[in-house]
Amino acid sequence: MAIHVTVWNEDSAQESAQSVLAVYPKGVLGAVAGMFENREDFFVRTAYLSQPEAGLSEEILEDTDVLVWWGHCKHRLVPDEIVTRVQQHILRGMGLIMLHSGHESKIMQRMMGTQCSLRWHENQDKERIFVLEPAHPIMRGVPAWFELEAEEMYGERFDIPAPDALLAIGWYESGDVFRSACCFNRGYGKIFYFQPGHETLRSYYNPYVQLIIRNAAHWAARDRALDRVLGSEFAPPLEEKK
Ligand code: ZN
């Protein structure tokens, strides 16, 4: 059964800035969706903010095993009721992959319970990403370390709760470091935050970045057999009192 992936972005390809289209001709949305296209293990659809219900209707989320999110400037424009709807799906088992500047999205802050703020600068620093957990399924096929020619620097402290698994740490030539690949469990859902992916730099062409994102989709995918409803249930005693 193919994993149903919904790739969400605040901009459609048409809405993307020229500086973005110069690097990613189909926008960041198209670049990320392209990682899942023409593969037997995935069925991919795209969604974006200017669509009705921000592209995330109940029907689409119900048919989504993993939601992949990229946003930057328009976090505040995502309606709160959509954030609550996405949260409910995650708690029931839908996976969430949060990319790059999605760190301060409403849904990330909602799921973490913290600001998710960080230190940053745009100086086209080289980044070297070190894998800390090579046995984790998300890091399958990834070497001990790999380099990105240029990235926006995201540095510590990253205001997140301690990850349930910390899979990689990034070092930048500016001297900064960052927890660049973090796993969280929330309810029955799995969340993966992955730092690379500034919109005018080329990280989404890197084969290891692509591999990690695809591996993460396999890891985080909703298990339909375990799909749960939320809320407590009355439980009569299992044994009779003597
Ligand atoms: Zn950025």
Brief summary of the model shown:
The protein is 21% helix and 30% strand. With 242 residues, the protein is α/β, with parallel strands linked by helices.
Write out key terms for the chains shown.
single chain; 242 residues; alpha/beta; 21% helix; 30% strand; binds zinc ion
Topology summary:
Layout: E1 3-9, H1 18-21, H2 27-34, E2 42-48, H3 58-62, E3 66-70, H4 80-91, E4 95-99, H5 106-112, E5 119-131, E6 145-155, E7 165-172, E8 177-186, E9 189-194, H6 207-220
Parallel strand pairs: 1-2, 1-3, 3-4, 4-9
Antiparallel strand pairs: 5-6, 5-7, 7-8, 8-9
Bound molecules: zinc ion (ZN).
Residues 72, 100-101, 152, 198 line the site of zinc ion.
Number of helices: 6
Largest sheet: 9 strands, mixed
Tally of strands: 9
CATH class term of the domain at 3-115 and 180-226:
Alpha Beta
Tell the overall outline. Answer: globular
> What's the rounded overall pLDDT mean?
97
**Ligand kinds:** zinc ion
Order of strands, main sheet, comes to 2-1-3-4-9-8-7-5-6
Q: What is the string of helix and strand elements? A: EHHEHEHEHEEEEEH
CATH topology of the domain at 3-115 and 180-226: Rossmann fold
Query: Could you give me the name of the CATH homologous superfamily of the domain at 3-115 and 180-226?
Result: Class I glutamine amidotransferase (GATase) domain
